[in-house]
Design a protein that fits this description.
With 176 residues, the chain is an alpha/beta fold. It has five helices and eleven strands; from the N terminus they run E-H-E-E-H-H-E-E-E-E-H-E-E-E-E-H.
Length: 176
């Protein structure tokens, strides 16, 4: 059984996998895509705070070397001047998501995170000690926790609301 099964190898899933690995947690990433290639254009930049977090992990330089820094950020049709922000990185970084994912993938692979590609999640069933992640054409993968990070493609029906080992999070009961 894995400590954490992460469904999705986009930026959120990869960053989570890296953070968990640095903490000594056994994380497995399941990705539906056969490769890290993206169809079409997605996110196109990184903000100051994210660059600071990447810097804390010693990997900001990888991103800065491939992107273009911009001293402004758009808020609707208004351009905001970022030069006065109290940070080492008072800018946004123009870098498309396919490059962001590639750089994060290189980092998590260096850390030894296991990524299984071509894995389509069809359901999740939980009990008191963990959850089984059902996969199309394969047996289940078991984890103490399951995190869905596959963004707009996330199959809420497959994940349902399955609290594992605690009260969980139920959007119908916001005070929990």
């Amino acid at each position: 059984m894995h400590d954490v099964v992460i469904v999705g190898s986009g930026p959120t899933g990869l960053m989570l996998a890296g953070e968990l690995r640095l903490a000594g947690v056994d994380a497995l990433v399941l990705e539906r895509r056969p490769s890290q290639e993206l169809a079409g254009s997605r996110g196109g930049g990184i903000h100051s705070r994210t660059i600071e977090l990447l810097d804390q992990r010693g990997i900001a330089g990888r991103f800065l070397a491939e992107g273009k820094t911009l001293q402004t950020a758009a808020f609707g049709s208004t351009q905001l001047d970022l030069t006065g922000l109290p940070t080492r990185h008072p800018y946004t970084l123009a870098l498309f998501q396919n490059h962001i994912e590639r750089l994060l993938l290189e980092w998590v692979e260096e850390l030894g995170v296991q990524i299984r590609r071509g894995m389509e999640v069809t359901g999740v069933s939980a009990d008191d000690v963990g959850a089984d992640v059902e996969l199309a054409g394969e047996g289940p993968v078991r984890g103490r926790y399951v995190v869905g990070t596959d963004g707009g493609a996330q199959r809420g029906a497959a994940f349902g609301r399955h609290p594992v080992g605690g009260s969980g999070c139920d959007p119908e009961q916001p005070d929990r």
